[in-house]
């Protein structure tokens, strides 16, 4: 019998019941704690007010602060990016979304969509022009793929780029674009005679506008816009030279979906912690409701799904760091973790009772935010079909 097997196991930690922190390196914990402390200081005291007003004031200041802690494009290398591991990036997403999905969306769109597209498919000149400022938060980026009538079928996009001499002229509209009206550069995907191409569009180019979308009941502490491209003329060097076809935007989406796998568990954790705390202090029939069997059953089920989801995120992160993560595995993670996160939020609401709908608690805010996370960057149905095709070899998309 080994010495290790004779040692008593460490005490049970209700906040880390599977002991996942034991798998993290000191650098991983440092990244997590830095982001957690930033969110506790700069988001949590104000986010309920932002959500209620439907605004994200000071978004440019927040972006610069996120840049200063290395959270923008953090898994990319060079050009001022942190070069963090996939697990570290995931831990950051979890902590950001534990504060609010809108804040994690700001970071995901900046780093995993706009910066990732330029870093992977851009020319060296494009990388030098945009990435250092984006990593520092001095330049905010957005990602234009979804259109008003085109969501899950991006191959049918109507935005078109035509050649005019050596220039490109873009015309079309994009919808539900995070960061759109505060962006300095928009990565826009458009049909061309040679296939779908990506363009780095400076947002001060004549013909480009980004009206903000109002009246949202989800992701209210987030900037969401429409992009309008009215014969936007761009030089030849605006096109991303490294890719043609849908594999370009879809690879960006896969990278961003990976962050959602972690982030959704942050929202779930916030709701779970609120439910545990509430159950210890709220009394009914002469004692705390946490002492009743039905409440404990709910909390146990929530804890199981929460930490299974975090374990899954850890596993996918290790695979990404090893260069072995497949898009189907990302779909597996997004499908499971967002779906379970919503159920955890709904169960937490039942434990808080009427207080569960109050913005004094985070539960309803996270629940409504996750309704957006459920459908953006791939609906439940699309991820089910991705997995269905992988399991059967049969394509059921059409």
UniProtKB/TrEMBL annotation:
Residues 245-391 form the Acyl-CoA dehydrogenase/oxidase C-terminal domain. One of its GO terms (biological process) is fatty acid beta-oxidation using acyl-CoA dehydrogenase. InterPro entries: Acyl-CoA_Oxase/DH_mid-dom, Acyl-CoA_Oxase/DH_mid-dom_sf, AcylCo_DH-like_C, AcylCo_DH/oxidase_C, AcylCoA_DH/ox_N, AcylCoA_DH/ox_N_sf, AcylCoA_DH/oxidase_NM_dom_sf, Glutaryl-CoA_DH_mitochondrial. Keywords: FAD, Flavoprotein, Oxidoreductase, Transit peptide. It holds the Pfam family Acyl-CoA_dh_N. The keyword Cell membrane does not apply. Residues 1-23 are annotated as: Disordered. The keyword Coiled coil does not apply. Its cofactor is FAD. Residues 142-232 form the Acyl-CoA oxidase/dehydrogenase middle domain. One of its GO terms (molecular function) is flavin adenine dinucleotide binding. Residues 26-138 form the Acyl-CoA dehydrogenase/oxidase N-terminal domain. Residues 13-23 have a biased composition (Acidic residues). Belongs to the acyl-CoA dehydrogenase family. This is Acyl-CoA dehydrogenase.
């Amino acid at each position: 019998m080994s010495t290790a097997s004779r040692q008593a196991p460490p005490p049970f930690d209700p906040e880390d019941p599977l002991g996942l922190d034991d798998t993290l390196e000191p650098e991983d914990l440092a990244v997590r704690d830095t982001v957690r402390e930033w969110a506790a200081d700069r988001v949590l005291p104000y986010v309920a007010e932002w959500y209620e007003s439907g605004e994200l004031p000071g978004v440019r200041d927040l972006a610069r602060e996120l840049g200063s802690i290395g959270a923008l494009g953090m898994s990319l290398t060079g050009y001022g990016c942190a070069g963090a591991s996939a697990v570290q990036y995931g831990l950051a997403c979890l902590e950001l979304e534990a504060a609010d999905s809108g804040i994690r969306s700001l970071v995901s769109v900046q780093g995993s969509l706009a910066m990732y597209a330029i870093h992977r498919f851009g020319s060296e000149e494009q990388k030098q022009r945009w990435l250092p400022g984006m990593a520092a938060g001095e330049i905010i980026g957005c990602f234009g793929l979804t259109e008003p009538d085109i969501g899950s079928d991006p191959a049918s996009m109507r935005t078109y780029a035509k050649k005019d001499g050596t220039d490109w002229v873009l015309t079309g509209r994009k919808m539900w674009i995070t960061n759109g009206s505060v962006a300095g550069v928009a990565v826009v995907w458009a049909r061309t005679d040679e296939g779908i191409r990506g363009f780095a569009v400076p947002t001060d180019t004549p013909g480009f506008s980004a009206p903000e979308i109002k009246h949202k009941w989800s992701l209210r502490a987030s900037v969401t816009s429409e992009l309008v491209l009215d014969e936007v003329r761009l030089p030849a060097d605006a096109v991303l030279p490294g890719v043609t076809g849908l594999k370009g935007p879809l690879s960006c989406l896969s990278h961003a979906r990976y962050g959602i796998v972690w982030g959704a568990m942050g929202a779930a954790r916030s709701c779970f912690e609120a439910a545990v705390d509430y159950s210890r202090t709220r009394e009914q029939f002469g004692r705390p409701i946490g002492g009743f069997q039905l409440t404990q059953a709910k909390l146990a089920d929530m804890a199981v799904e929460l930490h299974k989801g975090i374990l899954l995120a850890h596993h996918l992160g290790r695979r990404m760091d090893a260069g072995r993560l497949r898009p189907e595995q990302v779909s597996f993670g997004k499908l499971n973790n967002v779906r379970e996160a919503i159920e955890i939020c709904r169960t937490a609401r039942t434990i808080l009772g009427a207080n569960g709908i109050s913005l004094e608690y985070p539960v309803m805010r996270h629940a409504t935010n996750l309704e957006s996370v459920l459908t953006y960057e791939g609906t439940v149905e699309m991820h089910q079909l991705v997995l269905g095709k992988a399991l059967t070899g049969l394509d059921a998309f059409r």
